C-alpha cells in the first residue's frame, strides 16, 4: 500500500503517478518494468517515488488493488441483481471480466498479469469479498447469497470460501488459457473461453458424474 505521504499529494499528482505506473505495467511484464520509466513519465524526482511507495511491487499491487475494488463493486451489484443466485452471478461476472481482460482498455495490463500470474497475484486480484470471513465484502456475500440454491448454508463459512475459491480459480484459469494459447496452433476464441468456463462451472454446480446409477 502507498505510504501516507502519497495520500497527501494533490489528486492530480496522485493520478499522474498511477497512470505512469499502469502504463509501464501494461507495456511490459512486472519483472521487466522499470521504476525509472515510471518516474520519467510521471515527471517526479527519483527520491520522491520512494517517499510514496516502498518499491516497484508496492505500486504494482496498489494499481492491481484499484482494479480489484472495481471488480468487487461489480460482483456485489450482480449478486443483488440476481437476487443472490451465486452461480448466475459468477457466470455474468466472468463474461464481463473476460471481455474486459481481452478487449478492454486494460487488456495489455491483464495480458501480462495472466501470462505471469502466481498465487500471490491471483489472491490479490480476487475481489475482496472472496477472501477471509472477517472482511466486510465476505459478510456482504453471506448476507445476500440465496443459500436455498446451494447445498451449503451460513453455518459453513469455510465451505463457502472453498466454493468461492474454486469459482474464482475457474475465472482466472479460463482467461489465462486464452493468453497462454493465443500465439499457438491451439489459440482459443473468446467464445471458446466462455464454453470452457461454463463446462467447469456446470461441474461445480451440478457435479460431473451421473447420479442415478
UniProtKB/TrEMBL annotation:
Q: PROSITE patterns of this UniProt entry? A: HTH_TETR_2
Residue intervals of the HTH tetR-type domain: 11-71
Keyword NAD on entry = no
Say if the entry is tagged with keyword Cell cycle: no
Could you tell me the keywords of this UniProt record? DNA-binding
Tell me which domain of life the UniProt entry assigns to the organism this sequence originates from. Answer: Bacteria
The residues that make up the annotated DNA-binding region are: 34-53
**Which GO MF terms are attached to this record?**
DNA binding
List the Gene3D superfamilies hit by this protein, alphabetically.
Tetracycline Repressor, domain 2 (1.10.357.10)
What is the protein name for this chain? Transcriptional regulator, TetR family
| Organism from which the protein derives | Latilactobacillus sakei subsp. sakei (strain 23K) (Lactobacillus sakei subsp. sakei)
